[in-house]
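Researcher: Next entry in the queue.
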Amino acid sequence: MPRSLRLILPCIAVHIIQRGNNRAACFRSESDYLVYLSHLRQLSDKYDCAVHAYCLMTNHVHLLMTPSGDGACTGLMRDLGQRYVQYFNREHERTGTLWEGRFRSCVAESSRYVLACHRYIELNPVRSGMVEHPSGYLWSSHAVNAGIRSDNFVKPHPDVEALAADPAKRYAAYQNLFVERLDPLLVQNIRDATNAGYP
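Model: Structure for this entry, 199 residues:
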């Protein structure tokens, strides 16, 4: 049976999930997270994909990014997967696959959905019971998007920039998005759309 075609469009944000094979850990040490982010940083420049949000969980990864052209997202994820697996297998003296098949994705076709994806991605560690607030999780973009720390690797999405013209007000508005938890139905809708590959 042929693979279904992914719907990834130039200049439209896309939410990506990649899981470890059999839900096994794909990050075992601090250096693993740092290496993954280093490769992601390099490849986002190479493929001209703006990374807006990310969260590296123990056994899976969430990304929200906007590719500039056809094939940019797929090329980035292919190279990122290959580079990181080579590192991970060498570092942890293992062989074989690390990822559970192809990455899953869905386009974020509206402002509401872009902001929901930001919340969904950066609230992952809270839903998993790892931290009480997303700012307490080191391996996500929340601290950058909320103005707690700076990192020019994370590029604000236009819908985040539209929260306020003044940066201080924008950061405050972004932080306010996380005062309440996401509605469970919205969480399920985002999961379903991303796993099935539809908008």
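Model: The mean pLDDT is 90.
Researcher: Noted, moving on.
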